[in-house]
Amino acid sequence: RLNYRHAFHAGNFADVVKHALLVAIVAYLKRKEKPFRVIDTHAGIGLYDLSSEEARRTGEHLAGIDALRASPAAEAAALAAYLDAVSVDGPGAYPGSPLIARRLLRRQDRLSAYELHPVDAERLAALFAGDVQVKTFALDGWLALGAHLPPKEKRGLVLIDPPFEAKDEIASIAAGLAAAHRRWPGGIYAIWYPIKRAAERDRLHAALAATGIPDIVAAEFLREPPGAEDRLIGTGLAVVNPPFTFAQEAAAIMAILEQPLGKSGGASSRVVAIASERP
Ligand code: SAM
């Protein structure tokens, strides 16, 4: 268990798309003064050294954040807040979702971050040591979806970014989301998923639809056309209770990312409804 190490993948194309969309959702929450909470159920260590052995072994950030920085797309206004948040540590490092979220918080907002891997949880705790706006937990993130909801702010975002190692990950996501939504129907939930073959993606959509939870959209980015091979070609984010601006913003952000993140011009993106709003 817990074989997945995000250090091999930090700053790759999937991280860029996921984090740019995360920033857009948090920006929406900041339109109101009222405090919000960000809950990161699978947080990782929060900051990745791109010169580490792991990062150099795969070089995935080269076709991700580095390609974006080198392209005219880096000037796009729609990416400014994202690029600001990931550039604080310089080009040799890349922040993870909890640190990106932390950088967007105002004084009244809070972050709760869960990481189950004991070594990673310790690094995450050290990163935020002394920060009164952040709580880290060396706990199972699925627990956060149960007992720890709703947060006292009653507004906010739950990011669910599991490693997809377990065979039954889709079932865990659907069950975890259903339990969470019962406790906190008004929260925004963003669920990351890999896109390899279409059939798997369709199974995830069907499992989310089968929860009966209304108002779910998915933003999907493919960096190359689907082929026969079973490898990561795309990245998805399913959002429950999306901000009313989300579909349009996500489409615009992903369209800008097609050029820098696409493989030989073959990228595409779409925003689709998984479940409609309750009438
Ligand atoms: N969200 C992070 C980001 O965007 O920077 C990346 C997270 S990575 C894809 C998944 C993380 O979940 C890994 O660090 C792994 O150790 C952790 N993990 C695996 N199972 C978990 C569980 N049940 N609860 C909490 N964390 C878990």
- The SSE string, one letter per element, is HEEHHHEHEHEHEHEHEEHE
Sequence stretches where pLDDT stays below 50 over 5 or more residues: none
Please state the second-level CATH architecture. 3-Layer(aba) Sandwich
Distance between the termini: 42 Å
The CATH C-level class name: Alpha Beta
Q: Quick one: overall form?
A: globular
Using DSSP, what is the number of strands? 10
Descriptive account of the structure:
It is a single chain. By secondary structure, the chain is α/β, with parallel strands linked by helices. The chain has a single domain (6-275), classed as Rossmann fold, CATH 3.40.50. Helix content is 37%, strand content 19%. It contains 10 helices and 10 strands. It has helices at residues 13-29, 53-58, 65-69, 80-87, 97-104, 118-127, 141-144, 169-183, 198-210, 246-261, and strands at 37-40, 47-49, 93-95, 110-114, 134-137, 156-160, 188-195, 216-222, 234-240, 268-275. Strand 6, helix 8 (169-183) and strand 7 form a beta-alpha-beta unit. The longest helix is centred in the N-terminal third of the chain and has 17 residues, at 13-29. It is globular, with a radius of gyration of 17 Å. The termini are far apart. The model has no long low-confidence stretch (mean pLDDT 96). Pfam families: RsmJ.
